[in-house]
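Batch manifest line 228
LIGAND: NDP
JOB: complex structure
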Amino acid sequence: MTGGNRGIGLAIARAFEAAGDKVAVTHRGSGAPEGLLGVHCDVTDTEQVSAAFDEAEAAHGRIEVLVANAGITDDGLLLRMDDDQFDGVVDANLAGSYRVAKRAASSMLRNRRGRMIFVSSVVGLSGGAGQANYAASKAGLVGFARSVARELGSRSITANVVAPGFVTTDMTEALSEQRKKEILDQVPLARFAEPDEVAGAVTWLASESAGYVTGAVIPVDGGVGMGH
Ligand code: NDP
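JOB STATUS: finished
ARTIFACT:
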């Protein structure tokens, strides 16, 4: 579970923990919340990813479920965006997911089963003004997950995407009240999501009941995308 020390990732980690699963969460120096195994890992660094998996697997056994949740925003309009701003977001959100999926796949192949769940965003499907870097990284996860689903499906490994809408976390706390109101006006359910509501979709995708679901994009967006 990447980025499991706070926000949506922590809610997902707690949901797995409550179901009796052994959970390891990554952090970048904050430590892990009480009761969870924390492994230090910046997903932009392949060596840190490898060391974090080694540590988590030494403690908990081979990974069965990967949740690639770590993500950042660094918004700006296209003409004002610089290369570092674009590359930084794609490196953390998309290439970071590639790095952890690749390492997880080697363990899952040995188990001949596994579940990979990638946390994308409604913005990856609809686009967002000022978020070309973020939207590209999140859209990329869909093609990535579907490719993994095709490559590894015959080994009983599934790869799916969850696409949340606006969720109340540190990431969205930074937005102005005006921007929050504009977003809320687009939500048929007329409220923002709580992190637990994203966790529900993720734990379902990891469960036995979702064994025949792969390559899917599950929106948890209050109806903003109406299934897209
Ligand atoms: P937060 O900003 O609250 O948390 C982000 C998490 O990602 C933190 O745990 C952070 O770790 C971790 N992280 C960021 N960069 C890295 C990195 N390079 N290596 C390892 N960990 C990293 O975000 P949310 O909980 O809101 O978002 C979680 C995911 O959900 C993200 O992928 C986001 O894009 C996505 N999402 C969020 C939505 C929302 O409305 N909040 C909507 C749609 C999607 P640290 O504490 O060390 O910074």
